[in-house]
Amino acid sequence: MRKNSMKNTRINGEVQRVLAEVIRGEIKDPRISPLTSVVAVEVAPDLKTAKAWISVYGDEQVIADTLEGLKSAEGYIKNQLAKKINLRNTPEIRFIVDESIAYGVRMSKLIDDVISNDNREA
Predict the structure, then answer these.
(1) How many helical (H) and strand (E) elements, i.e. helices and strands, does the chain have?
(2) 12, 44, 53, 81: which could form a disulfide with 39 (CB 3.0–4.6 Å)?
(3) Do 51 and 15 contact (CB within 8 A), yes or no?
């Protein structure tokens, strides 16, 4: 199975949907921020591993606590994935913090600052 095949794309989307559902509604760990979203999922072609990019709203401590909570709940999450998605293998999930939203907000603020400084000088 090629990396970008239709089957793999569908599996990625389905795993992302179920993962978001489980994180949002079923995990009761207080370390996991309620403002956590699953941005993207990439399942390996052999279905053994998956990378899940998550976005967490908050400071560095909130992000670290959320990652710690997700890592401790990996077994439960994998069990729920196995129940809800019928795959040959249930992938081991590795959570990665997605910084793209924070980066975009930071860049937008810098652009606004440059524009406001330019308007003051004119």
Answers:
(1) 4, 3
(2) 53
(3) no
Structure tokens at 9: 């794309």
H/E element, 42: strand 36-43
Q: How far apart are CA 64 and CA 68, in angstroms?
A: 6
The residues that bridge with 41 in the sheet, in sequence order, are 52
Residue given tokens 């810098």 in the structure block: 110
* Tens digit of each residue's pLDDT (9 = 90 or more) over 20-68: 999 998 988 899 988 899 999 999 988 899 999 999 888 889 999 999 9
Distance from C-alpha of 114 to C-alpha of 88, rounded to nearest angstrom = 53
Q: Are strands 36-43 and 49-56 parallel, antiparallel or unpaired?
A: antiparallel
Would the pTM count as exceeding 0.90? no
For tokens 């990396």, name the residue. Answer: 3
How far, in Å, are 8, 35, 59, 73, 91 from residue 79 at the CA level?
20, 23, 30, 10, 10
Q: Which two tokens stand for residue 67?
A: 């990652």
